[in-house]
Design goal:
Elements (H helix, E strand, L loop, with lengths): L2 H10 L2 H6 L5 E3 L2 E4 L11 E4 L4 E4 L5 E2 L1 H9 L3 H12 L13 H21 L2 H9 L4 H6 L3 E3 L5 H8 L4 H6 L3 E4 L2 E4 L4 E7 L5 E8 L10 E3 L12 E2 L1 H11 L2 E4 L2 H9 L5 E4 L6 H8 L4 E5 L5 H15 L3 E4 L8 H7 L1 H9 L2 E2 H11 L4 H18 L3 H15 L3 H10 L19 H16 L7 H10 L1 H12 L2 H11 L6 H32 L3 H22 L1
Helix pairs in contact: 1-4, 3-4, 11-14, 14-15, 16-17, 16-18, 17-18, 20-22, 20-23, 20-24, 21-22, 24-25
The protein binds zinc ion (ZN).
Zinc ion binds next to loops.
Length: 560
Amino acid sequence: MPSDTVAKIKERLGIVEVVGSYVGLERAGSNYKAKCPFHNERTPSFFVSPERGSYYCFGCQAKGDIFTFVEEFEGLDFKGALKLLAARAGVPIVYEKPEKTGEREKIYAALEEATAYFEKELAKQPEVLKYLTSRGASAKTAESFRLGFAPAGWRNLSEVMLKKGFSAGILERAGLAKKGPSGFYDRFRSRVMFPIGDSASRVVGFSGRIWGEAGEAEAKYLNSPETELFNKSKILYGFDKAKLSIKKNNFAIFVEGQMDLIMSHQIGFTNAVATSGTALTESHLLSVDRLSNRIIFAFDPDKAGFKAAIRGTKLALAHGMEVKIAPFPKTKDPADLAKEDPESFKKIISDSLPVIDFILEKIIKAGLSGRRLADGVALHLLPFVKAVQSRIEQSQAVKKIAERTSIRETALFEELQKVGVEQVGAEVGQGKNSKDSRRDFVERRIFGLLMREGVSGKDGVLAKQVKALLGEEDFKRREELYGELKDELLFEIDAYFPDGGESSGADGLLREYQRDILKLRFGLAMRELALAEKGGDRAKTEALIKKCQEISKQITELAG
Ligand SMILES: [Zn+2]
């Protein structure tokens, strides 16, 4: 691990600067707070300490530094986060020697090498270039999305890669080669290649569009298989290029295919993303939701993909996202429209309708009436209303449907009750811990104070008092236990006593802690006493009575 680089980056980039570029931070004493990007919450419990260069969430216990934050937020491994942050800090990364790199790094390297190979091959193919131009993609777009070409033939790429020192096993694990009865062969043959990047723009997979006559068994689009780097349910095509724009414009556009995506970007909708040969998942939505909770689906309404998108919108509604549908005409792909008439593409995006309105209008246009209209509403529309998280918005939707269809509101609400609750509404990443008991709470504050001051801080008075109360051994044990929770405790104490203003409060806490410990001890002694009496142990009984009296006296003294 290049630890120099890490230190240099941390020197140049503050945690507030890094985290603040992803989530809105608010000052809270010497710390900053925000709504946690890693779990669903309404009130902020995510704290950032500029002094310690770390963050901590009381809701889901997420914690760490700028690197773990970027890893978590961007869905990257450490190296990916390093790449992003190094670029941002302007610190060059010193790479280790290739023979020392791990298998994972070799797979990344193989995918990068293959991308470069496909790019070079594309330059040799005037027909393919002509095709891309005819679809509207400019040379600049092709270059920026690193479009390429996999030539026909079974071993073109494999042979080049083997010569460069990549093993067949690595090529297979990268999803570039397949093992057949007579050895390895290229997965992608005679295809226009669209590399798919992770959040740090490292190529992790490909989508290949067939070039020339498709054989019967060949799909028009072929995607890389799931690999250790390419997780289709997490990766969104174009996300690396779209993320800043999504945050800046405060909405994301979901398109269906690779061409739709690159053309949207080319005409200025740089906030477009696409799934890669899979239905929309919760992970896809979450990675967008962290940047903006407003999404527009720009799907060709005639295609199978549209039905999948409609299901995806339900998932998004259940996440409390604002979901709109762009009313693209049936006759044209978004990509074709972007090429032929960018202005009307823009208009369609700005004419997007909230998904419930969109479906409602479709049902009304179908011209149904009576029972059939009611059935249509119940079947096609109410499930979306049900998915909406806010009760107020639900009522508003029902009201609107009643107005437009003349179905009575009460009837609609009755139908709504019958709609099955889908398993999508559960809050994500809810905090694991239930509320701490009061004693736990007090003890954590006490040890938090000790950590912040250091045991000898403030003349070590507090430490001495706590030691006197607990005894040396018990004190050590708890110190060790809480040492593992240092981050949490420090954040808690900062939130509890901001700006170190604990002088008066700490005394009260200590008294409460002393009382708690003594009461606990008293309870234990009483139980022992009962056992000793039952067992007829007179000497022990006497001793325990004395002990109970002593503790009880201490408690009274403390109260006085
Ligand atoms: Zn959290």
